[in-house]
Write a structure and sequence with these properties.
Shape: globular
Helix content: over 70%
Structural class: mainly alpha
CATH topology: MetI-like fold
Number of helices: 13
CATH class: Mainly Alpha
Length: 269
């Protein structure tokens, strides 16, 4: 009976996994077919073509969109890690007046939907003259969520390690770089995955703050394709595949390192 329940559970999980994978299979197969009908779907591998991908990469804008997305995503990850690790260390291990109150106010900003601040953020960015610049696309990416993750990870580090480093003459900067960061690598990788995917898939803010094609990011290419060409399901799916693959690969690469870091921390504990 127990063996039967395990078999049923495995079958249910396999069925759920197939349901999750099916949309991606649909997207990839449709991107390789010339069709104007979204319902003209089959698992047949006949009549596959790279026509849509050739059409996309033959244009002048898609390469620039892709480069902009890469710059924004990686710069956003670096900036988020820098600010979140620094602020998380300050809130977790440094004692200063109003520490808990400031952190509480910071966490409360997570309750505010991002759509609410789009207009004031745009007014600030426009006032600074940053419209159609990488600064406008990258600087708003760090959020209180990253500070929260890093603070919670750093809180688990024993204070004795920090005191030993201070006795040896280490400054707070060296303690953060040499002691704290190697021990919270798993949290940093997790934050990197969330930040990269969020920055790469961000659509609303780049749409608002960029009016020049040379500064637009890859998710905006979907709307550009609809405007330049007739409604073509295959072309839209090809653009979706190009947009989907980089964050997926980034996630797969960091996931293995993340799991290794978790296992290593468990052995150390």
């Amino acid at each position: 009976m127990k063996k039967l329940s395990h078999i049923v559970g495995d079958l249910v999980l396999i069925f759920i996994a197939l349901l999750c994978i099916l949309p991606f299979v649909y997207m990839i197969l449709m991107s390789l077919k010339s069709t104007l009908n979204a319902y003209d779907f089959s698992f047949s591998l006949s009549n596959l073509t790279l026509e849509h991908y050739n059409k996309i990469f033959s244009g002048d804008t898609i390469g620039r969109y892709l480069l902009n997305s890469v710059i924004v995503a990686f710069a956003g990850v670096a900036l988020t890690l820098f600010t979140s690790c620094s602020a998380g260390f300050a809130f977790a291990k440094l004692k200063f007046k109003g520490n808990d109150k400031i952190f509480l106010l910071l966490i409360l900003t997570m309750l505010v939907p991002s759509e609410v601040i789009l207009v004031p953020l745009y007014l600030v960015v426009r006032g600074l003259g940053w419209v159609n610049t990488f600064k406008a696309l990258i600087l708003p990416l760090p959020t209180a969520f990253g500070v929260f993750i890093m603070r919670q990870a750093i809180l688990g580090i024993p204070n004795e390690l920090l005191e030993s480093a201070r006795i040896d003459g280490a400054s707070n900067r060296k303690i953060l770089w040499s002691v704290i960061l190697p021990l919270v690598r798993s949290a940093m990788l997790t934050l990197s995955i969330f930040t990269f995917i969020g920055a790469w898939n961000n659509f609303t803010w780049p749409l608002i703050i960029t009016t020049n094609d040379t500064m637009r990011t890859l998710p905006l290419a979907l709307t550009t394709m609809k405007a330049q060409y007739d409604v073509d399901v295959g072309l839209t799916m090809a653009c979706s595949v190009i947009t989907f693959l980089p964050p997926f690969i980034f996630y797969l690469l960091l996931q293995s390192k993340f799991e290794a870091g978790v296992a290593l921390n468990g052995l150390k504990g």
